[in-house]
Amino acid sequence: MVGLLGVPASPGAPGIVRGDELADAKAKQAQLKKEIDAQKAQVAQLAALQNDLADGIKQTADQLRGINTDLAAVKVKISNMAAKIDVIKADYNSLVAELKTLKDKFPDVTGFVLTAADDVEYVSVISMMEIFKTQVPKMAVLLGGL
After folding, report:
1. Would the N or C end of the chain have less CB density within 10 A of its end CB?
2. pTM for the complete prediction?
């Protein structure tokens, strides 16, 4: 005869796994996998956002470099124009002084003819005429040619 040895089963005994515990472990494992997958997706989304942000920063930096280059060119132009304005002011003041000298030298003169060389623009001649009219308001100013 063969003897049987019986060991009582206990719910907490090691090595024995019940079906509902296995199902719970599988469910926990599946839930952990979902959470890890969700975190991976969030990390991928964050990486994509960071790449977009880096591209945006690079584009902005490129635009700023272009603006700074343009701004530097504009500053040079402004500086050049300011120098030209200074020359024009000096010429204006010189002409006004010369006109006053002529007026003092010839007090009986009531008019004059303004002439200019062929390469002087008409606008410049008219501007000079306006200046003379403001400096010597009672004197007639006529335009003439050489």
Report:
1. N
2. 0.45
